[in-house]
Amino acid sequence: MTAQDAISLAVIIFGGTGGELAVTHTMKQIGEVQNFTPANLLRVIGRAFGVGWMWLGLFLMAVSFFALLMLLSWENVSFVVPLTALSYVVGAFGGKFLLGEHIEARRWVGVMLVCLGVLLVCAS
Amino acid sequence: MRFSHRLHGKTIFLIALMATFGPLGDVFLRKGMKQIGAISNWHPSALLSAFERTFRSGPIWLGITSLLLFFVAYLLVLSWADYSYVQPASATGYLFVALLGYLLLGEVIPRMRWIGVLVICLGVLLVGGTPPRTTEEG
C-alpha cells in the first residue's frame, strides 16, 4: 500500500462515516417517518434539505465517493473494497468515544478481526 | 421485530438484490476507472479532464445505477427489518466483491487476500450483529 492509497482510504472512511453521522443527525432532527405515502416522503426529503447538516453530509459523502473512484483508478477492487471495512472500526471507536455508546465485547472481537483481515489483505 | 411470512419473502428478495447490486456496483466502478487510467496528474486541469471522462464512462454509470439500486433496497428493507438482520448481507458483500473482481475483471487474488477477506467478513458479522440502539432514548 502506497502513501497515496492510505490517504485516499482515510478520506473514503472518514468522509463516508462523517457523512453518515451528519445525515443521521438530520433525520433525528426531523423525527421518525411514520407515513410512507409518496407525498409525505417528498415532504420529508424537502424538510431534510432545509437542514444544514444534510448538505454537510452530502458533501462529505461526495468527497468520499470521489476518493473511492481515485483509489479504484490505481488498485484492484478486490483490494480496495475489503479495506473499506475499516469504517466499522472507526464507527466503533467513534460511537464509544464521541457518542458515549456502549460497545459489547463481541463487537470489539469483530473490530479486531476486521483489523486482522485488513492486515492480511495489505500483506497479500 | 414485526414479521410475517409475506414480509419474509420480500425481505429475502431485497437482501438478494443488495448482495448482488452492491458488489456489482463496485466492480463496474473499477472497470470504468481502469479504462480511464490511473489518476496521477494532480494539476487542476488534468483532474477536471479525468472528472469529465469519468462521468462520460458507461461502466461508471452502470456502477452508480447498481449502487443506487443497492441503496434503495437497503432503505426499503430497513423500514421493516432490523439492522442486525440485514447486516450479514453487507458482510458477504466483501466476499462477493472479491469473487466478482476475480471472475469479471480477471483480478489475480493471492491466497492470503482470500483469507483476509474471509476474516473481514467474519469481523463485520460480529460488529453488526448487535442491537442498533445501545444508548437510552433521549
Give your account of this protein's structure.
The complex is a heterodimer of chains A (about 120) and B (about 140). Chain A has about 120 residues and is mainly α. Chain A folds into two domains: about 1-75; about 85-125. Chain A has six helices and no strands. In chain A, helix 1 packs antiparallel against helix 3, helix 1 (about 5-30) packs across helix 5 (about 85-95) and helix 5 packs antiparallel against helix 6 (about 105-125). The longest helix of chain A is centred in the first third of the chain and has 28 residues, at about 5-30. The termini of chain A are close together. Chain B is mostly helical and about 140 residues long. Chain B has one domain. Chain B is about 75% helix and about 0% strand. Chain B has helices at about 5-35, 45-55, 60-80, 85-105, 110-130. The two termini of chain B are about 20 Å apart. In chain B, about 35% of the residues are buried. The interface of A and B includes residues 69, 79, 102 and 116 of A.
Brief sketch in words of this structure:
By secondary structure, chain A is mainly alpha-helical.
Number of strands of chain A: 0
Largest sheet of chain A: none
Helix content of chain B: over 70%
Return Rg of chain B in Å.
Answer: 18 Å
Largest interface, per-chain counts?
A: A-B, 43 and 47 residues
Rounded radius of gyration of chain A (Å): 17 Å
| General shape of chain A | globular
Round the mean pLDDT of chain A to the nearest integer and report it: 90
Task: Give the N-terminus to C-terminus distance of chain A in angstroms.
Answer: 10 Å
Low-confidence blocks of residues of chain B: none
Count of individual domains of chain A:
2
Largest sheet of chain B: none
